[in-house]
Amino acid sequence: MFKFPAFSMRNSIFARLVFTYLIVVFPIILLGIYLYQWSYQNASNDITRATVKQLEYYLDGLNREVEWMELQLFDTVEDSGLNKLSATWSLMDSAEQRESLNELLHRLTSFQNSSPYMKDVSVHIRPINKTVSAANGVQPLDEVRFHTFNNQAGMKESRLQLWNDGLHLSASKQSGKKGEEPIFIVQIELDAEKLRRSLHQINLYPDSGSLLILEGSSYTIRSHPESDASILDFVRRASATNNNEFLMKMNGRSYHLNKVYSESLGLSVAAYLPEETVKRPLNRFYTWGLLFALTSLLAVVAFSYSSYRFIHRPLLYLVQGFKRMESGSLDAAIEHERKDEFGYLYTRYNQMLARLQNLIDQDFKQKMMMQRAELKQLQSQINPHFLYNSFFILNSLAKTGDVERIELFTNMLGEYFRFITRNGEDHVLLSEEVKHSRMYTEIQKLRFSRRIRVQFDELPAEMERIRVPRLIIQPIIENAYEHSLEKMAEEGLLRVTFERSESMACITIEDSGDGIEDCEIRALQERLAGIAKSEESTGILNIHRRLVLTFGEGSGLFLSRSELNGLKVEIRIKLEEEMNHV
Predict the structure, then answer these.
(1) What is the DSSP letter of 76?
(2) 3 state SS of 502
(3) In the prediction, which pLDDT does 46 show?
(4) Half-sphere exposure of 500 (CA within 13 A, CB side)
């Protein structure tokens, strides 16, 4: 995979193109989600309105039926034949009594057949001790019913009375004397089964259901007696509120519930509908919306990939080519097989590099070839030392099985070798060289954190812009570890400090090791001065030569005994007298 530069994802054209495409696509996706929710809400509202209308229509019809029953009820109470029968029963002979009862029974049967919701019509006549029922004929007086409906007559909270798990209507004929029982009571028993069947007309869908509730009591008629009892419990709780629309969840399913209350009847009728039924018409819309969202995301990915491959990556190649050219590398031509706009640019770029290379070869490169070759040769001698020690550290960490430190070590090692293998420049800013050396000490801390302390001072701001040869500090620190600190049995200390005067910049590296004798320090000083041969300590000698070659006499390495009892190495960089620059 092509590696992005550190700045590319923040400032690149590619990121802006992808961001622009997302800005265009995501509002469309959000609009689709909004339309789905809006459609769902409208469908829910339409079903609610239709359900409420059905409930209101049902209660209106039931109220008309009850009003008709009440009208017939009071007509029966005032019926002359019934009143005559009650008053003159004892004066009639048996034939007249039988004839009067038959007429009353016929009237009650006609009364019962006048409404589909009546199960039975009964008259409880106290003077003759008889109960006449359209369903059961003439029976002895039902004392229980007589007293029950007589007692409820004065305390009815609603027109419908609940008794014996059924709904009833009643009216009585009073004797006219205070404290006496009524002459007779007319009682109508509503047919619960027919009421249950009538509830089916409210159910708009096969999986919906409805309930008829007598408020203030536990009496309920369900269109589906086998339905979940938890629905009934929820409806009862909902009935205690003034809302007429609810959303309930039971057994992992959601239901829409609508309720309408009739104050005149004291009844509420409720209808419930599973939420998936409401969403069923929108399933196809949901499927297409999801497909659109996925397609849009795939389009974003395809657009991003094509933009990266055909625009962003070729552009990055060109940008990196210019960066290499700025750093002095003029031999890295860009290859591009496509004959597009970038192919034209790459061809012209490569031609420009070739012309620049020719110009440099003819003028500057010939003059610097010898000096550059010597510097490269001296610099290349330093790399194998640290490479060996790096593998030694990695081997030690691997033996201990410390995976986290291995990961940290390899990351830092990658940054380290990125610096030393960079071929763009022979000289770098002192701030970069110090950063690289500090990275090396961090690497060594992974190995010697318990035995060796490091005091690495901050580089003064006025020294940051000094350009120095690469790898002049780290090899000296490496030698301190390898020849002194690493061999100590006690705790060691490595100290790196910086100093700046008007004509000199000084970097001091010293350690607390006691493994070096004064005669060895003098031998090293002689090698640096060119008095003795230099078969050993080639790293220090090479650094000294590069500094002298770059900055002239007075610069280089200066060795002495450290206050810490180890070796003290001073890197002196001679500055120009006029501008204090290298």
Answers:
(1) H
(2) coil
(3) 74
(4) 14
Structure tokens at 467: 């350009």
Average pLDDT, the chain: 79
- Report the C-alpha gap between 119 and 94 in whole angstroms: 30
Cβ distance 292 to 29 under 8 Å?
A: yes
The answer to whether the CB of 171 falls within 8 A of the CB of 73 is: yes
Dist. CA 431–CA 442, nearest whole Å: 16
- Return the structure tokens found at 44: 């829910």
Tokens 């305390």 found at: 155
pLDDT surpassing 80 at residue 110:
yes
Q: Give the C-alpha separation, 574 to 556, whole Å.
A: 9
Distance CA 109, CA 124 (A): 15
Inter-residue long-range contacts of 219-224, CB under 8 Å, 24+ positions, other chains counted: 219/162, 219/165, 219/167, 221/192, 221/195, 221/196, 222/196, 223/196, 223/199
CA distance 569 to 460: 19
- 486, pLDDT greater than 60: yes
Cα-only R_g, the chain: 52
Pick the closest to residue 187 from 205, 165, 160, 157 (CA basis).
160
Nearest Cα neighbor of 117 from 169, 65, 73 is 65
Residue 220, SS3?
strand
Torsion on CA atoms 498, 501, 505, 509, rounded to nearest 10 = -30
The strand pair at 452-456 and 492-500 is best described as parallel
Name the pTM for this structure. Answer: 0.46
Q: Is 17 helix (H, G, I), strand (E, B) or coil?
A: helix
List of domains in the chain = 196-282 (3.30.450.20), 284-364 (no CATH), 365-574 (3.30.565.10)
Q: Calculate ∠ Cα 544-548-550, nearest 5°.
A: 115
